[in-house]
Amino acid sequence: MASEIPALPQSYAPGNDSVFSDRSGFYSMDTNVPGLSKLILNKLNMKDYGEYRAAVEGKAQGITFRNYKELFQKMEETFKFCTSCNKLPEHLTEGQTLKRCVKCLNVYYCTKDCQKKDWPQHKKVCKMLRLVAIDRLVEWLMFTGDLPFSTEKWSKPVAEVKNWEDWLPMQGDQTSCLDAILSGANMTSLWKNVSRPRPDDSDLRQSLWRIQSEFLSRVLTVGMGIRHFSLDPYAKPLTIHVAGASHNETMGARVTDYDELNKMFPGHQGIEILMVGPEVVDGPIMRPPLRAFGPKHHVYISAHKGLYHQFWEDVVEKEEGAKPDLVIGFHPGFHANQGLIEGWLPTLLLLRDYNIPCLFTMYSEMELKCSLQILLELEIQIRDSGPNPFTSQKPEQVQSCPNKIPVYCNSHYICFQGILPEEDVEEPGPNN
Ligand SMILES: [Zn+2]
Ligand SMILES: [Zn+2]
User: Fold this and answer.
1) What's the 118 CA to ligand 1 centre distance in angstroms?
2) Is the pTM here over 0.85, yes or no?
3) Does 260 score more than 70 pLDDT?
């Protein structure tokens, strides 16, 4: 989800391909970025985007549901619009109801005709959207504490773990761990309260893994950044900032969320992860950064609510927090629109001018290309870019356009540091 979103103008109206429903309170803000539904999906019941912001800013009190049935119902309502003609429930004629595609149980249609008309597009993603529909319910187990499940010690040195195919075999047989979640009270309660039958166990096992992979993808991507810039966590403690951290990384965050780094670099000198962003959600990780180096062999997570460049002025420059050895940006989304690039500009220039090693992730190759172009225009030196070997395995529906090919969190990355050397900036001369 894009972060550092500037406040919306009063006149804000959703674009043509966004979906807005007064009743369910859902905006799809960015056509290319899945996002807001997550929040609704997990916790909230909101009238409009203003209320959403109030909630993420901690101003809205007591947004609760009477029961789980209601929570899951509200959540499902955010998906109720005709995929073909975009009609919302309140625009239906009397007696008409939105009917769900029986194959994926994900998208809705107002009439048979609409469904027929849409099928040539929808059939390309229907199978995938079935998984998406399962995942968005199973994801609730992240908030009940069933997920993430615990992982094993690394049996291979970090240099030999280059992707999921290297990482997974170190986990051994996860059957008993997954079966415990499958037979757990929360899983049972989930399927009792949603308006669809429980998928079979093999579907659920795969879904649990996909959701776990999204969680781990963030940690392993940080690890990849450490390796990429040859930072040595055995030589000195490392300070890592997550710039533009949003509710995705901070809602329900636990102080143990980055412990996989302990398995990746056993016996390290101490790693501090500091989340900074205007949408950081209050919770146990909301604590000041370390002033002195933290405990050896531990990962210490803290959070700061605010824009990154402001944080730099208020905290780093006053030496109330260490300068980062690495800055991570999960889906900054600054390619998406002018407002976002303006929000990110001071941060990008600051990171460039202080020569800070950075790794940013994207949802797709298209985003990667647009982001690269923006960074190059800022004369930032790109070190590397490409598909992320630790991409999330969980498909994300492009909310307002379900028939678009689903995307994956952290699917691509860019490593960059410092300013382009001058010879690269100049036009090639006759001798080149
Ligand atoms: Zn329709
Ligand atoms: Zn379908």
Assistant:
1) 9
2) no
3) yes
pLDDT digits (tens, 9 = 90+) for 180-236: 999 999 999 899 988 899 999 999 999 999 999 999 999 999 999 999 999 999 999
For each of the domains in the chain, give its residue range(s) and CATH number, in order of start. 20-139 (no CATH), 216-425 (3.40.50.150)
Distance 286 CA to ligand 1 centre (A): 45
Higher per-residue pLDDT: 26 or 64: 64
Tell me, what DSSP letter sits at residue 126?
A: H
Ligand lying closest to the C-alpha of residue 96: 1
- Is residue 55 left, alpha or beta, with left meaning phi > 0 and alpha meaning psi from -120 to 50? alpha
Kind of pairing, strands 238-243 and 271-277? parallel
Ligand with the closest atom to the CA of 87: 1
268-293 pLDDT per residue, tens: 999 999 999 988 888 889 998 888 77
Angstrom CA distances, 258 to 50, 238, 314, 389, 424, stand at: 32, 13, 26, 18, 38
- Cα–ligand 2 centroid distance for 197 (angstroms): 16
In this structure, which ligand is nearest to the CA of 132?
2
Q: Which ligand is nearest to the CA of 113?
A: 1
Q: Which of 35-44, 171-180, 349-358 has the highest mean pLDDT?
A: 349-358
Ligand at minimal distance from the CA of 84 is 1
Q: Quote the CA–CA distance of 86 and 114 in Å, as a whole number.
A: 10
